[in-house]
Amino acid sequence: MIVVYGIKEYLNPIKAGLSEVIHGCMQSVLGMPEDKRAHRFMPMDAEDFYYPGGRTPAYTVIEINMMQGRTPETQKVLIKALFREIESELGIAPADIEVTIKEQPAHCWGFRGMTGDEARDLRYAIEV
């Protein structure tokens, strides 16, 4: 699952495009299937979204929650692809993008009535 935070006046107009870019990176780097898109957008009022100095109001936070298994190298490729593609497709500078990958063991995930370590029918690899 991916959660995206930003100031609503900047995030709302680009939600669909940002979802496309994020999912494209997830597909090309991690091999995620087309229908495996779980994005949550959290547009916020400016007074509720504090961000570091040197950033603009376009500052956007992307939290990627995933099961453990991807190598550090794969994770770095994903982060760099996001910086590159978001800038190319949406014009947001890498300085205004923050990406955090949060990994949890498969047994900490629950979906379709089972835990992640019980799932045997995933159409994508976890260990890449």
From TrEMBL:
Gene3D superfamilies: Macrophage Migration Inhibitory Factor (3.30.429.10). The lineage of its organism: Bacteria, Pseudomonadati, Pseudomonadota, Gammaproteobacteria, Oceanospirillales. PANTHER family: TAUTOMERASE YOLI-RELATED. Signal peptide: none annotated. It holds the Pfam family Tautomerase_2. It comes from the Bacteria. This is Tautomerase family protein.
